[in-house]
Amino acid sequence: MKIAVAKGDGIGPEIMDAVLSIFDAAKVPLEYEFVDMGKWVFDKGFNNGMTPEAKATIEKLGILFKGPMETPKGKGVKSINVTARKTWNTYANKRTFQTLYGVDTVFSKAGIPIDITIVRENIEDTYGGVEHLLTHDVALSRRFITRPGSLQVIRYAFEMAKKKQARRITCGHKANIMKLTDGLFLECFYEVAKEYPELKADDVIVDDLCMKLVTRPDNFDVVVLTNLQGDIVSDLCAGLVGGLGFAPSANIGDHICIFEAVHGTAPDIAGKNIANPTALLLSGFALLQHVGLLDTASMIENALLYTLESGVHTGDFGSKETPSLNTTAFAQAIISNFGKKPAHNPKPAMVDMPTTCTVINLDKNPMLESAEGAQERIVGVDFFLESNLQPEEIAQKSLRHGGVKFKLVNISNRGTQVWPTGSKFTNLVNQYNVRFEGIDETPLNQQDIIGLYVSMTGNFKIASLELLNQWGEKKGFSQAQGQ
Ligand code: NAD
After folding, report:
1. 265 CB within 6 A, ligand 1
2. Ligand 1 touching residue 260 (CB < 6 A)
3. How many contiguous H segments (helices) and E segments (strands) does the chain have?
4. 307 C-beta closer than 6 A to ligand 1
5. For a 10 Å CB count at each end of the chain, is N or C smaller?
């Protein structure tokens, strides 16, 4: 079987070489097709960080084993890692965090075992990276949470929890504040939970979840979250088990899967052959399990656990009393322990992944659409406009545009109502949301909205607008604070 391999940037080539040397020593029956991906490929003028040949190879083979890739902060190219996950719809990011004997943490010293799997939604949320400067002072990011996208990842999490015989599956969210976006994710969670009555399913608000994870991590088993919250919580969990050097990840889709470490390119130690290859090796085990090489995966994993237990370590962890090994020597130590069993938690040949993905040729993009509910109707519009006037002045100018179809309902600034009621203590920025709704039950259409838009542009620069949709009694828009 062939898989695609991209060594990546920074420490990527060093840790990938170490892991592949371990695979070769274990006679893993995989062939590797090395592909060109990473910052160095961007620098050669390929905007998505990969050559067309690399893209074609990965789409043909269906499995990519990759090292970390560099992304400039705040400016420049989009993350190649995020682009790859999104382009190939690897909707579930599975990250496993387990106590490793030989890797001392406050919890291992206190005898509290950790075995947490975070399933992070991998495509949506603010990672769409759809951002605009609405005024010179106001930046806006669009946060996409969709029903089909949420159902895909949540169903994967339940299926995995079932295979793993998990004690509990928890949804982390912020649905108390983001009632439509996180609210939709939570609704999907309990919808899927009904199909798995044998699993204990519950939810925790994400800030409370963080507090509970750092006090009693052993109370958690599988946790599913939206993209950004999942990203933050999984790094927190990496800290619980000894740091990023021990955090593997699998990006699961229906047709393409990507296996990589959670950590980045570690530019501060790149090129020194001192990086810890454990996280990439653990990601490699997930890959081996995924392709059905269960015995090989558990043999190498037992050798790794034995090595860690015996106090062998790289410079980023372990006792300061014993000298650390470099990346290559650490890999050799694991190879020399092939066939040995650790005293703690030896790995049986088992798999906790739901199913392997199937490689197919697609002739068109799959459309994910859930069944339509009640009839959708337009009941109003939010205009996001630039102004440094006071709320009352905005209201007076806006009121004259409503005509016979629209009434001005409210004006808010950064989500807080400032008209018809508000407080003089609310600080303002030069970007308002002016909301109009239909005067009566007469349905509105897009032409009505355009008419109002054109009229409003007589007084204001409008940066964007959002239709206010309603399905039956269900409103598809949030209220302002204080409304
Ligand atoms: P980082 O994970 O690269 O490094 C954070 C710290 O952890 C550094 O001190 C580093 O030396 C240490 N570290 C990380 N991996 C290690 C390992 N295997 N062994 C020993 N120490 C290790 O995070 P960063 O510095 O914020 O990011 C650097 C670059 O990596 C950025 O361009 C970022 O965008 C990219 N990145 C890529 C991925 C990915 O490819 N999936 C993930 C995260 C960050």
Report:
1. yes
2. yes
3. 14, 18
4. no
5. N
Distance CA 327, CA 314 (A): 7
Instruction: Write the class of the CATH domain 1-91+253-365.
Output: alpha beta
Residues of the chain with CATH 3.30.70.1570: 376-475
Interatomic CA distance for residues 289 and 244, integer angstroms: 22
Q: Which two tokens stand for residue 89?
A: 């719809």
Of 102-106, 254-258, 447-451, 477-481, the poorest mean pLDDT is in 477-481
Give 443 or 373, the one with higher predicted confidence.
443
Query: How many residues appear in the chain?
Result: 483
DSSP 15-64: HHHHHHHHHHHTT---EEEE--BSHHHHTTT-TTSB-HHHHHHHHHH-EE
Is the beta carbon of 184 within 6 A of some atom in ligand 1? no
Which of 11, 265, 274 has most ligand 1 atoms within 8 Å of its beta carbon, as the pocket-test mutant? 265
* pLDDT: which is higher, 198 or 481: 198
In tens, the pLDDT along 108-145 reads 899 999 999 999 999 999 988 899 999 999 999 999 99
Start-end of CATH 3.40.718.10 domains in the chain:
1-91+253-365, 104-241
Whether the pLDDT of residue 429 is over 60: the answer is yes
| 8-state DSSP, 371 | P
**Domain spanning 104-241, CATH architecture:** 3-Layer(aba) Sandwich (3.40)
Residues forming beta bridges with residue 385, ordered by sequence position: 432, 462
Q: pLDDT band for position 170 (50/70/90)?
A: very high
Would you state the CATH architecture of domain 376-475? 2-Layer Sandwich (3.30)
What are the Cα distances from residue 388, in Å, to 135, 200, 330, 459? 11, 52, 62, 13
Quote the ligand 1 centre to 223 CA distance (angstroms).
23
Full-model pTM: 0.90
* Dist CA 318 CA 321 (whole Å): 9
Q: What's the pLDDT at 43?
A: 86
Q: What is the pLDDT of residue 208?
A: 98
Grouping H, G, I as helix, E, B as strand and the rest as coil, residue 203 is strand
Instruction: Classify residue 144 as exposed, middle or buried by CB count within 10 Å of its CB (0-12, 13-18, 19+).
Output: middle
pLDDT in tens, 57-83: 999 999 999 999 998 665 566 788 888
The residues near 154 (Cβ < 8 Å, ≥ 6 apart) are 171, 185, 188, 189, 192, 224
